[in-house]
Structures are given as C-alpha cells and as structure tokens.
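re: that chain from earlier
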Amino acid sequence: MKANSPAGDDALVIAGKRYRSRLLTGTGKFRDLDETRRATEAAGSEIVTVAIRRTNIGQNPDEPNLLDVLPPDRYTLLPNTAGCYSAEEAVRTCRLARELLDGHKLVKLEVLGDQRTLFPDVVQTLAAAETLVAEGFDVMVYTSDDPILCKRLEQIGCVAVMPLAAPIGSGLGIQNRYNLLEIVENAQVPIIVDAGVGTASDAAIAMELGCDGVLMNTAIAGAKDPVRMARAMQLGIQAGRDAFLAGRIPRKRYASASSPVDGLVGG
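^ sequence. v structure.
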C-alpha cells in the first residue's frame, strides 16, 4: 500500500487533493442529464470525467449544459481526450479544456490506437504526456497494462496512471491481474483501473489487488438500471478496499479446521 495519506487516513490523494471516494465515473452514454446526475450521486463519485469533444460544458450556450447537473463546486471535473488518435490532437484538446474551465489543470489523457479495440497508442501517449506535464498540466493517463510503460509514465510526471483491465466498454473484467499487481507494487502514484470493468465484483477484485481506485462509464451507463448499478459499484469498491487493507488469508491446497482438534479431551 502506497503511503499517500497519513496513518489512519484512507483518502485518495491526486495532485495534492484528497478524496473520500475511490470510484471515478464517466458522464457519457446516459439517456439524459438527469440520469447522469442520479447515477453519479448513487455512485458517490467525487471525480467525473468529461469528454471535451463530445460534451457541452458551456461552449454551446443553446444546448443543455453538463455543469448544470454536475456543478464544479461539488465535483472535480476531469476533462478527457476521448476520441483523440494523435499526441497533437490530445494536447490541443487539453488546452481547450483549460481555457473552457478557467485554467483547470487536471486532465485525463488518452490517445487511442484504432477505432475497433480502442487500445491506447502508447507511443503517442508518451509524447503527449511529456508535452502536457511540461506545460503544467496534472495528467492522469490511460494506458495499457504494461508495467514498464506505467513506470515510465510515472517518471515523466503523471499524477496518476490508469491501466486498462480489458478493452474499453468490453465488460470483460480484469484479464491480467499479475500485470496489475506488478504495476501497483512498483508505483509511487495512484494506480486507477480504467476500462473493462463490467460489474461490481470486477471493481472489488481491482481494489483487492491494491489498486487505488477504478474509473468506469459503460458498466454503469449501459446497465439495465444505471442508478442501481452505480450504487452496486460503490459498494464493490468499498468492499474490495476494506478486504485489501484487512489482508486476506493465504491460499492453501488443503483445509485447516476453524476449531483445532489438538488438545481435545480424549484426543
């Protein structure tokens, strides 16, 4: 467990700011802004991602504004570069977000490699991260679950590294827990699983592995009942975190009795 909080304080710390919730949620794919609001509240999220190229946060005054239902004085907005396929495009989008949000520095960087899998283009991601960090952005970066790459992004200066569990929107759950363990054990910044979570047990497993949080959108917005699923995800995150902090028993090939038989009368 990384010591990013004082003893006894289990806050998630990102770019110097403390958060009680370890569940980060997206704002896309909901039926309307009211459902977005209700699901976000049910999830207990404090950080919400916003796709700057797809969401109105004031640039279109005649359209519904996301900030009316998720006000910045209540939530930390995390502008993301969803839909960008080059470092140049991603950097330009982050600059736009900073302008629209009055100097806002915290951004989620994602540079995609292709439209079918939405896997990250790691070469372009590294280039964009270097530029954004140099320009003073606090970068939370979506990437593949490669331990070497994740460490490199940390060394560049990203404030959080966000490896995928599985392809975006796939709902497949964590496909390579050993890579995640390696990433977590060697990180000095928060590690937040981003993409691939399908249900609450997936979120709990990520937290049991020692991840600092989980970011999700499709798993909630695409559920038959998004608000109920958001609440389930919140509980899954909490259960997984508590289990990690509590320390599970070792795995064994054979059972050991809960009540020892040694020393019993007549034994």
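The chain has a mean pLDDT of 91.
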